[in-house]
Amino acid sequence: MSIPKELFEAAETDGASEFKIYSRILLPLSRPAIMTCLILYFTGTYNDLYGPLIYISSHDKWTMAQGIKSIEDIFNLGPRDYIVPWNLVSAATLLSLIPVLLVFGFAQKQFMDSMARTGIKG
């Protein structure tokens, strides 16, 4: 979806500067798309497991995803009669969802506006 040139021409005719056109026309119209990109980027980065596994070696700096994976790995490395405590893994996973849900909750309006505009043509 593109922004019509007529909006920019009308703003220039009214005497708006480049900064005013950017701040009053372009940025508000682009906000839903920007927020959608930020939400998807945050979610992907926050849930990344293998990237931080490569460059973080200290256990006290692990991400939430690495900590949850380590709970499962500890029990899988033990004797065969150990059972992975799926209740702990599920509880930790639920706690790790809270920041993602908060980010989505704050940006939900822009995210939904962006999704609604994808089907509009013209």
UniProtKB/TrEMBL annotation:
It is a multi-pass membrane protein. Its main location: membrane. The keyword RNA-binding does not apply. CDD domains: TM_PBP2. Residues 1-107 form the ABC transmembrane type-1 domain. It comes from freshwater metagenome. This is Unannotated protein. InterPro entries: MetI-like, MetI-like_sf. Signal peptide: none annotated. It is found in: Cell membrane. The lineage of its organism: unclassified sequences, metagenomes, ecological metagenomes. The chain crosses the membrane at residues 21-42, 86-107. One of its GO terms (biological process) is transmembrane transport. One of its GO terms (cellular component) is plasma membrane. It holds the Pfam family BPD_transp_1. The keyword Transport applies. Keywords: Cell membrane, Membrane, Transmembrane, Transmembrane helix, Transport.
